[in-house]
Amino acid sequence: MTEAWREIPVSLVRGCRLGALAAVALVVLWAANGRASGFDDAKQAMAAEEQGDLDQAVAGYARAVEDAGFGAVSRGLLFAARGKALAAMGKFTDALKDYDKALALAPDQAVIRFNRGNLLFGMGRYDEAIADYTRAIDLDAADAAAYNNRGSAWFAKGNLESALANYNMAVRLVPADAEFVNNRGRVWSAMGEESKAREDFAQAKSLDPEVKTPLD
Prior knowledge:
Residues 194-216 are annotated as: Disordered. It is a single chain. The protein is 71% helix and 0% strand. By secondary structure, it is mainly α. The chain folds into two domains: 1-140, Tetratricopeptide repeat domain (Serine Threonine Protein Phosphatase 5, Tetratricopeptide repeat, Alpha Horseshoe), CATH 1.25.40; 146-216, Serine Threonine Protein Phosphatase 5, Tetratricopeptide repeat. The longest helix is centred in the middle third of the chain and has 17 residues, at 72-88. The model is unreliable at 1-11 (pLDDT under 50).
């Protein structure tokens, strides 16, 4: 049985980085021990996940993480990859356990912090999500998506000033991202700054006509 997942407006949170995680994992695993059986298991698991076969993905990651030839960072990335697959299956408690194991092994991997932050956000654990996004930003100060998602966590907590500050940073880093601009417009609207909100919604539409604003 899957657990309840908090309903989140899709545009508010930039999704988990499966592709980035997979790429980092493959590079690190190959450097660690490219001929190990665990490397093949990891490749097969990633391929299964891309094809939507999450059961096979989880099983493959479970085999790969047992390879004694991999170091701490390699195993951390594998636990994180399995956590991502478990979350996609709705097994959020198990996913969180894997992310916790991942960060115990590889605490300085920003992609793991970011993905665990998204999981915690979805579980309504906003303070913990903010802490993970903050650490991801500490590790990569140019991570616009982490600023955006931290802004969304502050927004969910009702702290509009902090939300605005984070959305401003996201937009400053990637001004052409329609979702970031749209999210900032939501905060302006919540603050009663309707003129600024409309400006952002119009800008978001000009950047991406498909983006859904509160004015649609």
